[in-house]
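Researcher: We plan to redesign the surface later, but first we want a full-length starting point. Tokens attached.
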């Protein structure tokens, strides 16, 4: 079973989960970690270690972090070299998260991550440019469909 850890600075991770639940319903296989000013690097590392090791043998964590090179991602890399039993993906956004948590349980972790990264990239659109390229105006009713 795939498990997801959303690990970010501040309360972003908790808000991502609450927002995803608003859209997709309850997600019992998703948990979060918040890096705050009150946590030292050592405290954060121990908390992340505890989360990542409290799982069944058949469960595999995919950790989604907010910022490549940030303290949360860096701590995850340190733990990855030690524990070697989870995946880390940086740059989490809502399209990525929804794609991944709603993926088929039988889908491989590699395919789940690949689709999540593709969704993250596809979800970043400068609408002004898109409208201009379609020769539309922002004043025109515009509906975005899948």
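Model: Full-length starting sequence:
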């Amino acid at each position: 079973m795939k498990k997801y850890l959303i690990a970010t600075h501040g309360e972003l991770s908790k808000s991502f989960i609450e927002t995803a639940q608003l859209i997709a319903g309850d997600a019992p296989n998703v948990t979060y970690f918040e890096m705050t000013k009150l946590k030292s690097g050592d405290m954060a590392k121990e908390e992340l270690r505890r989360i990542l090791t409290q799982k069944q043998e058949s469960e595999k964590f995919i950790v989604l972090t907010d910022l490549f090179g940030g303290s949360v991602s860096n701590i995850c890399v340190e733990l990855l070299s030690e524990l070697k039993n989870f995946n880390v993906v940086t740059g989490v956004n809502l399209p990525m998260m929804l794609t991944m948590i709603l993926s088929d349980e039988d889908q491989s972790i590699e395919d789940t991550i690949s689709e999540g990264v593709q969704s993250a990239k596809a979800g970043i659109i400068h609408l002004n440019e898109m409208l201009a390229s379609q020769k539309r105006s922002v004043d025109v009713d515009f509906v975005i469909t899948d």
